[in-house]
Amino acid sequence: MTQSYCDKNSSSSPQDLSTSFHCRENVGSMANEEANIGIGDHDVIYNILSRLPGKPLLRFRRVSKHWNRLISDPYFMKLRSRRVILLTYTRPLVVIDDNDENTYYVTRIRHHLQHTRVSIVGTFNGIALLALYDYTWLEYCQLILYNPLTCASKKLVSMGEPYKPLDGYVFGFGYGATTDNLKIVRFDVFRHLKQEVFKYDVFDLKTSSWSKPPQYLTEDFIFTGDKVGRFLNGVLYWMITEPCYRILALNVKEMVFWKTKVPYELMYTWPLLGSIDGCLCMINSGIDVGRYDLWVSKDQGGVEISWLKAHSFTIRLEPHLRNNLFLFYILGNGKILIADTSSTLLVMYDMFKDSYKTIDLESCRGYGLHTILPIEYVESLVSPSDMC
């Protein structure tokens, strides 16, 4: 297993940043090699560069003008389509690039986001929407667009303290009929007509403004899990309890809410909500249960969701990894992130192949991996300023 750590502001050479390809040459020799290959041999260069992790790839844009144009080409980035995982609550932020059976890269991003807490709201086109909670300033929470690959950011809006500060806001990020109509949904508990309700409103990125007036939902349920909506096919989904587990859904285009049931077997088992191959899915996440079931929705967008038990599996780990584990995220390729809450070990388990690898996130020490929010996305060179 190869593990590479890269800091954005580090002085590491290109050979340190591409160990899996045994690139021993310096930048000057790479330029000479490019001349020997010939500009016409695009397939060779494409094949080499498309396999590199994001941070070394950005450094290699300095090799020549030709490489800079090639790497900056949107078609090349789309062809590359590397899915990576961003972890927050850490300082610095952490990106895991897992695109090979035996190799992974952990990139520590040193950034200026020195807030008390960083939470992920969602992603779109390689850009992450982050909520920055700062307990030392009057601007309690800021929403920003952030590109983890280039570290470029754009501030959207600042918000005051929520009604219940310890609970914070509940967010969702998605779009309606078209992808150029991105919206942020915000929930806050609010005192209204002598009772507590959920006040919700919508921030439109196109107009950079909140919808008026805010709407209300009766507070007869509680948001659970990481309190971030999962966006699929025009609908946002949140896990709630009332008191058994259910799903709150929102059609982003029509702004219509409804509640739908989870599989009966998961109503009282602390289910984990996610997506796999573009479909909504759920897994019973109690690690001491032993046996797990993957449930996949047969249809989406309707008032009632039909569930199909698609796979059953048992997580088999070495003895020293069987204690203090917490299943907390489903990746789109069928892998599950499991945290060792007593250490900095992260287990990436493939539920279909019954195999796993461990990743030591030393930079997360002191945070508790079970409190870290991950999100999966495809890297891009899109600027946050181009999204609104």
UniProtKB/TrEMBL annotation:
It holds the Pfam family F-box. InterPro entries: F-box-assoc_dom_typ1 (IPR006527), F-box-assoc_interact_dom (IPR017451), F-box-like_dom_sf (IPR036047), F-box_dom (IPR001810), SCF_F-box_component (IPR050796). Residues 40-80 form the F-box domain. Residues 1-20 are annotated as: Disordered. SMART domains: FBOX. NCBIfam families: F_box_assoc_1. PANTHER family: BNACNNG10540D PROTEIN (PTHR31672), F-BOX PROTEIN CPR30-LIKE (PTHR31672:SF13). This is F-box domain-containing protein.
